[in-house]
Write a structure and sequence with these properties.
Strand content: 5-15%
Structural class: alpha/beta
Largest sheet: 4 strands, parallel
CATH architecture of the largest domain: Alpha-Beta Barrel
Order of helices and strands: HHHEEHEHEHHEHHEHEHEHHEHHE
CATH superfamily of the largest domain: Aldolase class I
Distance between the termini: 19 Å
Number of strands: 10
Number of domains: 2
Length: 391
């Protein structure tokens, strides 16, 4: 009776439409392209989330990761002019003023948060063709001079291509130089949605899917761990989303080098595409859930609360996500501090832990490489969850 009862309960949640996918998930089988397309198109988001949570708990239990980190965006001067970008200086009226951090500016930014035990500095910027090779190396060195124990996650694949160009030598050699300066890992931006159609329409001056994958392979060969992302919610099709996940899964099969995947929701405010609707919570949750189900070889799925909102990221811990990123001091890529309704840019460690515990998960502070940071101060008891008894 117990097994039959469980089966009936599952069928009520996933329905006839998704039962075939559930059987694959329960057996630990890899999902197909067609499965991914159905997961994106079905109206049964609860069923998708239910299955994603099964995988999430199988891989990461009740743990929910967070990090104390700082973002430094060293310049918004960029020659790529991507249609979806608010951050870079572009001709659109009302856009941000151009800036370039000096090394002294970077030092000041790091010193500003010395009172916080940050474990990661996440540093990216625009593609400014006037910057010399030495500038990129010095960016890392000045951070490490002030905070020698901090892990530096820096330079997307697009930036790495530019770094190799100005260096006039192969990317593999540049990566060795960057590692010697103190680089710890590579962030996942720049892939957007891996589609030649979208590449031509939205970011033709940037590397396309083949270029991004080539850089990822070179990074893997260098021994630098890396992350992956997908920018969704603009003009991509559901099939293009699935194709992006399939390509990431394939390169992870090849390299095993990706630490985590983060779906990033597109915010159209202030961009060339500001006629598009804003992201929705249901689409954020669906992308996290589908990613968890399709990317069976990625250990971690991250909900980036600064794009998804803290509330959706809290809920996402039951929709496949096991990481809600971090404190994120001074993030500017999506929108600057105070822009468009005073959107919050910082959560304290206490707030992150509270959100995780309220969701019924166990907070685990991590570093850039998913090493666990030992508890040193506040310790919160997990609230007792109320078990609803059947009527």
């Amino acid at each position: 009776m117990g097994l039959q009862s469980d089966r009936l309960r599952v069928e009520r949640i996933v329905g006839e439409e998704l039962i075939g996918i559930y059987e694959k998930v329960a057996a630990g089988e890899r999902l197909s392209r067609e499965d991914g397309q159905l997961l994106y198109s079905t109206r049964n988001l609860s069923g998708v989330g239910f299955m994603a949570n099964l995988v999430r708990e199988r891989m990461n239990g009740d743990r929910a990761y967070y990090i104390r980190n700082q973002h430094i965006n060293y310049t918004n001067i960029c020659n790529k002019h991507c249609k979806f970008c608010y951050f870079a200086k572009n001709p659109k009226e009302g856009g941000p003023e151009p800036y370039l951090f000096s090394l002294e500016d970077v030092q000041q930014a790091v010193r500003k948060h010395l009172h916080i035990p940050i474990t990661e500095v996440h540093m990216v910027g625009g593609i400014n063709p006037k910057l010399p090779y030495s500038y990129y190396l010095d960016l890392i060195r000045v951070i490490k001079e002030i905070r020698p124990n901090v892990q530096v996650k820096a330079f997307t694949a697009v930036e790495l291509v530019e770094i190799a160009r100005v260096a006039g030598k192969p990317l593999a050699e540049c990566l060795e130089d960057l590692k010697a300066a103190g680089l710890t890992s590579i962030p996942g931006g720049g892939a957007e949605v891996m589609s030649e159609r979208l590449h031509g329409l939205l970011h033709p001056k940037k590397i396309g899917a083949d270029g991004w994958l080539e850089v990822a392979r070179t990074v893997a060969a260098s021994g630098l761990p890396q992350y992956a992302t997908m920018l969704y919610g603009h003009i991509e099709t559901l099939d293009e989303r699935v194709e992006h996940l399939m390509q990431l899964r394939q390169i992870q099969d090849e390299t095993g080098n990706f630490l985590a995947f983060t779906p990033l929701s597109f915010h159209p405010e202030g961009t060339y595409m500001d006629d598009l609707p804003a992201p929705t919570g249901q689409d954020d949750l669906r992308n996290l859930a589908v990613s968890r189900l399709m990317l069976d070889n990625f250990q971690h799925i991250k909900s980036f609360w600064i794009m998804n909102t803290a509330q959706i990221s809290q809920l996402s811990l039951w929709y496949g996500a096991d990481d809600i990123d971090g404190t994120i001091h001074e993030y500017e890529i999506t929108y600057p501090e105070g822009h468009l309704g005073e959107k919050q840019q910082v959560l304290t460690r206490r707030e992150l832990m509270k959100n995780i515990r309220e969701a019924g998960r166990v907070p685990m502070e991590r570093d850039s490489l998913y090493g666990i940071v030992p508890e040193k101060d506040e310790d919160y008891a997990l609230p007792k969850l109320i078990e609803l008894q059947p009527a």
